[in-house]
Amino acid sequence: MARVIARSVSDVVEQLELDGDVVVTVDRLGSVMRQLDLSGDPRRMAYDLQRGGWLGKLRTRHSWEFLPGARGGPYGSGDRFIEFRAQQALDTNWPGTLAMESAASVLGLAQRIPERNVIALPNGAPFPKALGGEWRYVRVEMPDEGIATINGLPVWDREGLIVGIGIRPSGYKDAAGLGQWLSASSYEVDAEKVIRLLAPMGAASRQRTAYLLQASGNVPGTQQIVAAYPPTETAWVGPHRQGGCYDPLTKVSDTVFHRYFGVGGGS
Questions:
Q1: pLDDT by residue for the chain (267 residues), tens digit each?
Q2: Angle CA 229–221–258, to nearest 5
């Protein structure tokens, strides 16, 4: 579908094209209009841009997807993270971070796109209504050192991911997928960084993180964590029940993931 750029919006479209905007908010439009010395209400500008096929609707209020001319028509990008980007654009202080299966996917580890994308939120941070349905969240406070920026998105890095799963293993819903990529080869990490990320965490989180590295075949990394934080009591992955596997090095009893791993012995 061909689009015509009305004179009233042409300068704004050009600026958004030049700046490579993906998501546009009312505040962003106001900033662009001031930059271009244009008068008027940014909300009216948003309406005109939508009507002309330059802004696509999003569930996140007061934000839109910019539809550049290079797409040849008013077509969305198909970006599965677009609502997440919109929430970030709307509130730059919102602390949501791609986590669990979503992080594994962005890092190129998981072979399947998750059915529902996952974000990590610290205690008290809101889960936006616009992300409901296609998204879920876990309550994990990851230190900044465990977060990277990939394609403009905050995401747990390799160390943050293994620590995050160790903190809340129930938050990783695709157990088979986890076993597949974690056991494919030794999961290489900066062990000293993992130890730092685990510093504010509890003993069970430390043990489970070491156990996950053990499951991947990264024995040196496991030994470094165990040396830094010697386990004293049994930590559990999954419900406390019989029929799982016990790993004596990390003192972890696993009733969930063990069937996909090659570690531990019968319990």
A1: 567 788 899 999 999 999 999 999 999 999 999 999 999 999 999 999 999 999 999 999 999 999 998 886 777 888 999 999 999 999 999 999 999 999 999 999 998 899 999 999 999 999 999 998 899 999 999 999 999 999 999 999 999 999 999 999 999 999 999 999 998 889 999 999 999 999 999 999 999 999 999 999 999 999 999 999 999 999 999 998 888 899 999 999 999 999 898 644 333
A2: 90
CB atoms within 10 A of CB 190: 14
Supply the CATH number for residue 26's domain.
Answer: 3.90.56.20
221 and 129 within one domain: yes
Structure tokens at 187: 């999961």
Q: Considering 53, 79, 105, which residue would you say is the last residue of a domain?
A: 79
Q: Which domain holds residue 101?
A: 95-266
Same domain, 147 and 177: yes
* Number of domains the chain contains: 2
Report the alpha-carbon distance of residue 264 to residue 133 in Å, rounded. 37
